[in-house]
Amino acid sequence: MSDTAPSDPKSHEYFDVWDLYEKIILENSMRHREVIDTIGQWSPYKRAGKTRILDLGCGDSYVVSCVHDGGDDVEYTGVDLSEDALAFACKRLEKTNWKLNFIQADILKALDGFKGTFDLVIAGYALHHLLDAEKEIALKGIRKLVAEDGAFLIYDMMPRDGEARDPYIRRFVHDVENVWGALDDQQRRETRKHIEENDFPISPGQWIDLAKDCKFDRHELLYRDENAFYALIVFA
Ligand SMILES: C[S@@+](CC[C@H](N)C(=O)[O-])C[C@H]1O[C@@H](n2cnc3c(N)ncnc32)[C@H](O)[C@@H]1O
């Protein structure tokens, strides 16, 4: 496993044609609706005054756009490698009053370049693309960017504690092939290939241990689906 970011990550290629992932979101195959409801009900999310948000692997910025009011005083920075995803994000958020900043870059490289802090750093279904050593580099970078009374929110694919990658990926692919409604056969094959080649999820317990090593003091598991595919954890 490498200690540095791959010079040319391939994890974004599946998302270069955003329409396919958009179908997955709209069908709620990856529980975006529950994630949005949970974040919306999490009281510290809506802060008085200005909110500076950093969204890593933002995709089309759908989740943040659903939780926050377009009129809120938000400074939003979205980072993604996919030009197509960023174009969708830009179109979605240009209707708001927010101050927008989109960066087409690898997450690990972008984390090094920020000055100042954010009230909220969000990473949704993005950090599982990183190898384990890269996840640690990312969390250390994120820790430095979270403001004193801010938080880091991660929602992602997360196996059961103690479940290895292979059985989890087999369970996940079974779900994609037998339960997800939105995809045709070709799209199912592409999705399976993307998952098998690019996804390296770790469990809630592993994220919590890693976050402790990276100097996050507190955590709360806000959401876990009944099949133990996904989870949402907040760190501060
Ligand atoms: C599954 S989508 C998630 C999008 C959105 N955050 C959501 O919650 O639905 C993963 C996103 O991460 C981006 N991505 C994957 N690896 C990346 C990397 N190393 N650096 C930046 N973006 C990356 C992809 O291009 C894609 O838009």
Structure, briefly:
Helix content is 40%, strand content 21%.
Description:
The protein has helices at 18-26, 32-41, 62-67, 83-93, 107-112, 132-145, 165-178, 185-198, 204-213; strands spanning 51-56, 74-80, 99-104, 118-124, 146-157, 219-224, 230-235. By secondary structure, the chain is α/β, with parallel strands linked by helices. It has one domain (13-235): Rossmann fold, CATH 3.40.50. A 7-stranded mixed sheet has the order 3-2-1-4-5-7-6, sandwiched between helices. The longest helix has 14 residues, at 132-145. It is globular. The site of S-adenosylmethionine (SAM) has 22 residues, from α1, α3 and β2. This is Class I SAM-dependent methyltransferase. Residues 50-158 form the Methyltransferase domain. Its EC number is 2.1.1.-. It comes from Rubellicoccus peritrichatus.
Give the arrangement of secondary structure elements.
Blueprint: H1 18-26, H2 32-41, E1 51-56, H3 62-67, E2 74-80, H4 83-93, E3 99-104, H5 107-112, E4 118-124, H6 132-145, E5 146-157, H7 165-178, H8 185-198, H9 204-213, E6 219-224, E7 230-235
Parallel strand pairs: 1-2, 1-4, 2-3, 4-5
Antiparallel strand pairs: 5-7, 6-7
Helix pairs in contact: 7-8
The structure holds S-adenosylmethionine (SAM).
Organism: Rubellicoccus peritrichatus
Enzyme class: transferase
EC number: 2.1.1.-
What is the rounded distance between the termini? 28 Å
Runs in which pLDDT lies below 50 for 5 or more consecutive residues are 1-6
Q: Please state the structural category.
A: alpha/beta
Radius of gyration: 17 Å
